[in-house]
Amino acid sequence: MKRALFALLASLVVASAVCESTEPTRIRITTWNLEWFPSGSAKEASAEQQNQRINEAADVLRPINPDIVLLQEVRDYDACARLGEAIAPGVYRVAICSAFKEPFQSGLGKQQVAILSKYQAQAAWSENGKWGQSRVALN
Fold it and tell me: Among the four 2, 38, 56, 77, which has the fewest Cβ within 10 Å?
């Protein structure tokens, strides 16, 4: 279900980007499973270690210069926003970051999915579902 939601929302962001112009648009999309980002494991890492992982991921993504970045296993909206700023300040926006609950426990899971985008999206909404709340922040 998470993958289906992720794919649907990614296509909405792409459609939104394409609709901005009447000219053919080339869009570079990159996807990355960051594996427990930004801590690197299920255990919380120090702020310094998290900042180092954010900067390392930004160093990889910057030369690729994607228009849209699909991320897996990110902790939360804040980690995604920090990554976007590290790649290129003021360029990438968090288009979506899920807020799925941890199965069989209380609270949100530490492995969410997210989309960073250079494009301005057109809508915003939030839905509650079987797996918890998925926060959609289409700026």
Answer: 56
